[in-house]
Design a protein that fits this description.
The complex is a heterodimer. By secondary structure, chain A is mainly α. Chain A has a single domain, classed as Ribonucleotide Reductase, subunit A. Helices cover 48% and strands 7% of the residues of chain A. In chain A, the strands form three sheets. In chain A, strands 2-1-7 form a three-stranded antiparallel sheet. In chain A, strands 3-4 form a two-stranded antiparallel sheet. Chain A has a two-stranded antiparallel sheet with strand order 5-6. Chain B is an alpha/beta fold. Helix content of chain B is 40%, strand content 16%. Chain B contains 22 helices and 22 strands. The chains are: A mainly alpha, B alpha/beta. Chain B: One of its GO terms (molecular function) is lyase activity. Chain B: One of its GO terms (biological process) is fatty acid beta-oxidation. Chain B: This is Benzoyl-CoA-dihydrodiol lyase.
Chain lengths: 473, 584
């Protein structure tokens, strides 16, 4: 072999990479493929440096290391939160036992599957957002896009680390397959449907980071509870980065709403399309779309897979340890609203153990409401009567008990004719998409911003908005 | 049905089969009376499309179309109702579409091929229902292989998504398997790890016997819950080839066309219509045109009478075609097939079937001759013989005591002689008819060419060879006796019957045999008969019915599968099975 690679400086980590030969061997094979993937499927826009945060250790300081970096030279690291030697399993049939540092043979296939599915979503969003850099509304936003993308790349690394470190030859094969499936590919698409749709414009990007990345937050939250300690610690660290993605989404939509509200006041009309703003109805339709598609990611309301994972200790509930119940869930039940073919709703009682997806979805929905409150407060502050609302959970669903029904945003079950006749009112139409796309003109000048979005209140890491966040050729 | 509509989970979350709708089925329910009448116009679960020489059988299971309430057929999981349609389609392809040379079995659902038998259905079904269901499924799978091997209709599986358990077993019954190369679709047999039962409709057997997968690989394959995909699946010979997602259907079509090239099926043949059966079913019995069954519930018996032809035999093959479904041998076969299926499924307590025939022995011989002679060259005659062969095989694996009663006026000749041979016991009246002691009429039987190999059992040899296994001299002797009427005393001497009581003893002898039978343990009888019936060589089919199925049925009854804490009962509850660790 040639010169010895200095693993720790090349790949920041706290998993003792420099003395783990198995992991080194695996990463040596995988890393060049990852770089090829990034070059081919990563951001299309070329830059000479982006002001990025790189995680160099898990401590408070190490986590917030900022510098201008050329994206393909980004140092994707491998971090797990600190090891807690006393951690015990919090739920399921192994509750109270020490957590596992190795994969138990009987759960190997399930754990591998969970990690592969989680891992498959991470690079998918990078692929979906590939072209967005070409139309960024400001250097600040462009920088955020890159930050989100490199961190999704790091999340992929985190999952690949688990596959390499704990799942042997098959783990290595699955890690490679994560790079071969591609979002929207006709031959080898990403596993989950929502990750095969292109993120077509920046409003969609904000919505995606608000609604879809939030799904990721909740999925990671359940894996953080896992009895398989390396998975738990990996996900806990990922959650910190995921929080930034949601910040991009929350403030992104804030700023669009803010700008639209300003234009409405300025011109005293809600019809602001002609003034370069995005009408509130279109924003609402984007909310309807991204929210309902994200709900599909929670799977069916009742799920034996989720129940099996729970009982086995592989995947818990959101904030499992804060919950005050028996952490077995075989005795409790939940109520589920079920649409009926005659157009009415009925309630069914479902054993809590089988309704874990529903439980997680409820947590997610109440979290989503917070964004709606923020955006409505902006409208109220501008004396605008319009209010955004989350559609009914049965609206526009392809997965779960509502799939196959036509349900309005208000929760009325309607026939196909009614649905089709109102579709343009409820979901972004091709005209809406074309209009939003027409606004997507890149603004790469320092301190400038596009017409349809307000500047942020604060810059990154204490820098002003007009800081040169991205060096362009 | 008023079950709420429920879709499949996204492809990311693979269930072995459906069933996520709350608590498991509680007590065992009364099962409905099942009919096997189907027509493509009213399929709920399959789409049958014929495109030139290639037929497409696309699985598109209606979730709410279960035969019994209480489960949803998610992810193309199936129950008996789904398989009955498949059986109907296979039969019609053979008879109604002679121009079809290859049959593609695939799924109309995206990312899902077939998730196998519905687990909630299995977990909630009485033991007898499970066994009957698996038996019928096995017979249907075998009939696909029979079509490939003997009918010039080759089955190809286009696995376009998740393919688990019975889904993979369905693919295994095809001659070739093409798997979609999307880097996520797998084939798998997760029964052992997930359900604590076996892939019992041929899975284990076909993996090692048909596809010659090495036993250590087969072990790895059958103990992992997540299946095997892509290149490894090809390397292990679990599938034949991979095809990319984008032109999967086209590649499948191309392959089907290539396979069609090698078929013997005539290009310009016209099919015959399998018209609805004439059948009158009441509480007392079932009457068809040529077959009649009377129930005696107190005695636990069915009196089955098969009547000989009512019209002159066709003189040539073209007349067989003109007759179509009216042809005597075809009609008798269809009626017997339907009767066996209905009795097996719906009449569990009628444990002894008394089989008689009635009619003109010479007419039977004349009718069968034109079909048997024609079978070499003519597709329809070939199909009729094959169908009769399969129906006899169905009888062979039927868990009922079969007793042939040979009386004056009967016509146990050739093809119908096989009914005698398929029976566990044969009694032949040596004397005049009981009702008319002055009559000269005597019972006789006749061997024909039909009894010497054209209707093999699942062990690959004829019923005569099985009866006289390794007694070639005896079979040769019988061959010399073919073509003539054999009396009761001769039949006893030739060892063709169990006993030949005279007219004074007849009624008592028969009564004692039947009553004695009824007093024995039905389980012991089933086991005993199955052991006696299959003499001689093992084949894949005998292994499936004799070994795989027997083990499966044992496991089905064990607490580790079916107990309160067993894996099958616990599946879908989110609770884990608790096993009794003792190896037995």
């Amino acid at each position: 072999m040639g010169t010895k690679v200095d693993y720790d400086s090349k790949i920041p980590n706290n998993v003792d990479l420099s003395s783990d030969r198995r992991l080194q061997r695996a990463l040596e094979g995988w890393q060049p493929r990852f770089m090829d993937w990034w070059a081919e499927m990563g951001p299309a826009l070329e830059t000479q440096g982006v002001y990025l945060r790189t995680a160099v250790s898990v401590g408070r300081d190490g986590w917030a290391h900022f510098d201008h970096v050329i994206p393909h030279e980004y140092r994707w690291g491998i971090f797990l939160t600190e090891h807690d030697a006393d951690r015990r399993i919090a739920f399921g049939q192994h509750a109270g036992e020490p957590v596992w540092q190795q994969v138990p043979g009987e759960y190997r296939a399930d754990l591998q599957r969970l990690i592969v599915i989680q891992g498959d979503t991470e690079p998918a969003s990078v692929e979906q957002q590939k072209l967005l850099g070409l139309t960024a509304p400001s250097l600040y936003d462009l920088r955020n896009l890159f930050q989100v993308n490199v961190e999704e790349g790091r999340h992929l690394w985190a999952m690949v680390y688990l596959l390499h470190a704990y799942f042997g030859k098959e783990g290595r094969e699955e890690a490679e397959a994560l790079l071969y499936r591609n979002s929207g590919s006709p031959d080898q698409p990403r596993i989950l449907g929502a990750f095969n749709e292109e993120t077509a414009d920046w409003l969609a990007f904000y919505m995606f980071t608000y609604f879809t990345d939030r799904d990721g937050k909740y999925q990671l939250g359940t894996l953080k509870e896992s009895a398989f300690d390396p998975l738990s610690r990996t996900c806990e660290f990922m959650l910190k980065e995921e929080a930034h993605h949601m910040f991009v989404g929350t403030t992104g939509v804030d700023r669009v709403v803010q700008r639209s509200a300003e234009l409405i006041r300025e011109h005293d009309t809600t019809d602001i399309a002609g003034f370069g703003g995005i009408p509130l109805e279109i924003i609402q339709r984007y909310i309807n779309f991204h929210y309902s598609v994200s709900l599909d990611l929670f799977g069916g309301e009742t799920s034996t897979n989720a129940a099996n994972y729970y009982t086995a200790g592989l995947k818990g509930r959101w904030q499992e340890e804060r919950r005050k119940d028996d952490h077995q869930l075989t005795e409790d039940s939940m109520l589920l609203d079920v649409p009926q073919p005659d157009g009415t709703w009925s309630q069914e009682e479902v054993q809590s153990l089988l309704a874990l997806n529903l439980d997680l979805r409820e947590e997610y929905i109440s979290d989503c409401q917070n964004g709606l409150k923020r955006w409505n407060k902006i409208l109220a502050d501008h004396d605008i009567d319009f209010r955004f609302a989350l559609p009914h959970p049965g609206f526009n669903r392809d997965v779960g008990i509502n799939a196959g029904y036509h349900i309005t945003p208000e929760g009325t079950i309607v026939d196909e004719g009614t649905w089709e006749a109102n579709r343009k009112k409820w979901l972004p139409s091709s005209e809406d998409l074309a209009f939003v796309r027409s606004l997507m003109q890149p603004v790469y000048e320092r301190g400038k911003i596009a017409s349809w979005v307000a500047p942020p209140r604060h810059g990154i890491n204490g820098k002003p908005f007009d800081y040169e966040y991205v060096y362009l050729p | 049905m008023t079950v709420a509509m429920k879709p499949a989970e996204p492809a990311g979350s693979v269930e072995v089969a459906a069933g996520e709708d709350g608590a498991p089925a509680g007590g065992q329910q009364a099962m409905p009376e099942v009919t096997f009448d189907r027509h493509p116009d009213a399929y709920r679960h399959w789409r049958l499309r014929v495109d030139g020489t290639v037929a497409w059988l696309e699985m598109d299971v209606d979730e709410n179309g279960g035969l019994v309430p209480g489960y949803e057929l998610k992810l193309n999981s199936y129950d008996l109702g789904v398989d009955i349609e498949l059986y109907d389609a296979i039969q019609r392809l053979r008879f109604e579409y002679p121009g079809v040379r290859s049959v593609v079995v695939t799924s109309a659902k995206e990312n899902v091929f077939c998730a196998g038998a519905n687990i909630r259905m299995l977990a909630g079904s009485p033991h007898a229902w499970k066994v009957n269901f698996c038996k019928f499924t096995n017979e249907t799978r075998n009939s696909m292989e029979d079509a490939t091997e003997n009918s010039g209709q080759t089955y190809l599986a286009g696995v376009n998504g998740v393919c688990a358990g019975g889904g993979y077993e369905l693919a295994l019954a095809c001659e070739e398997i093409m798997l979609i190369d999307d880097n996520s679709s797998t084939v798998g047999l997760p029964e052992v790890p997930l359900l604590g039962v076996l892939p019992g409709t041929g899975g284990l057997t076909r993996v090692v016997d048909k596809r010659r997968v090495r036993k250590d690989r087969a072990d790895v394959f059958a103990t992992r819950s997540d299946g095997i995909k892509g290149k490894t699946a090809v390397e292990w010979n679990l599938v034949d080839e991979l095809a990319p997602r984008r032109d999967f259907t086209e590649r499948l079509r191309q392959r089907a066309l290539e396979v069609a090239e090698n078929s013997s099926r005539p290009a310009d043949a016209r099919g015959i219509e399998l018209t609805p059966l004439e059948r009158e079913a009441t509480a007392e019995g079932i009457t068809y045109r040529y077959v009649d069954a009377r129930f005696d519930r107190a005695a636990g018996t069915v009196d089955i009478t098969v009547r000989g032809p009512g019209e002159p035999a066709p003189q040539r093959v073209s007349e067989v075609h003109e007759q179509g479904a009216r042809n005597w041998l075809l009609a008798v076969t269809r009626e017997l097939d339907d009767l066996i299926l209905r009795l097996r499924t719906n009449e569990l307590e009628l444990g002894t079937w008394l089989i008689r025939t009635q009619g003109d022995a010479e007419a039977v011989a004349a009718h069968e001759k034109v079909v048997l002679d024609g079978a070499v060259e003519d597709w329809l005659c070939n199909e009729i013989v094959l169908y009769y062969k399969r129906t006899l095989k169905r009888l062979d694996v039927t868990s009922r005591s079969l007793i042939s009663l040979i009386e004056p006026g009967s016509c146990f000749t050739g093809v119908l002689f096989e009914l005698m041979l398929a029976s566990d016991l044969q009694y032949m009246l040596d004397g005049p008819p009981i009702a008319d002691e002055d009559s000269d009429e005597r019972a006789a039987v006749m061997l024909t060419e039909a009894n010497f190999g054209v209707l093999p059992m699942s062990n690959g040899i004829s019923r005569l060879e099985s009866r006289f296994y390794r007694e070639d001299d005896h079979v040769d002797w019988l061959r010399r006796e073919a073509g003539r009427a054999i009396s009761a005393s001769e039949a006893a001497e030739l060892e063709l019957v169990t006993d030949a009581p005279d007219d004074i003893d007849w009624e008592d002898e028969v009564r004692i045999v039947v009553e004695g039978r009824a007093a024995l343990s039905p389980d012991a009888l089933t086991g005993m008969e199955a052991n006696h019936r299959f003499v001689g060589p093992e084949t894949m089919e005998t292994k499936i019915f004799g070994r795989l199925t027997a083990w499966q049925n044992w496991i089905f009854n064990r607490p580790n599968a079916s107990g309160e804490e067993g894996a099958l009962r616990r599946y879908g509850t989110g609770k884990r099975a608790a096993f009794d660790r003792k190896r037995v």
